[in-house]
What does this fold into?
Amino acid sequence: MKVSDTGKSRILLVEDEETLAIGLEYNLKAEGYFVEVAKDGREAVKLFENGKFDLIVLDLMLPYLNGFEVAKKVRESSPQIPILILTAKTGVKDKVKGFELGADDYMTKPFNLQELLLRIIRMLERKSWYKTVTDSSPACVFGDNAVNFSNLSYTTSKGEFKLTYMEAMLLKYLVEREGQVVGREELLENVWHMNPDIETRTVDNFIARLRKYFETNVSSPQFIKSVRGAGYIFDRGSNN
It folds into this structure.
């Protein structure tokens, strides 16, 4: 599967293991992507600030600045760019921290090349797909929160902020099914387009992010509620 002929997507590959970086660069270019490689965290930030990229593939264990620090700096200036963490760190705490800092996907080494390429394709496709599904319902208001799905902005009592594409797509999916219980497997299949047997914590981590943004009390959510053993349900309340 090749990149669309409408133009090359630009990928920033951040990997300090030279052999792996060379192999990934070769395979990504073979798929039709424009690729720039950073071998440490400082170089990654510099390339990002001076270039324009559609997606970042990011290792965590890097010289000078680690991947967590790079992700944080990227998210401070560009909330929307997809970030795929690719790392040997397999611990749950590392994965949770990666998602908390704004990663959209997380793969551990060793990895299957075809799965990596497929995830990249789908992450890039989501950006294009998202732009086509916001026209019918570009906004949503619930409680003190207002979300503009068209430009990925949201306002709360704390101010105005930006969502990532994955955060916006997940919220939109729940909003469009208001009052319905939506399972983790359904979300993985229809929002992430992933095999639900591969990963389930991804959904939980993203739900936690949305609650942090929109709920007054994250331990007792008012809008994005859990249904034990079944999934999640969105309820904007009777006043909206």
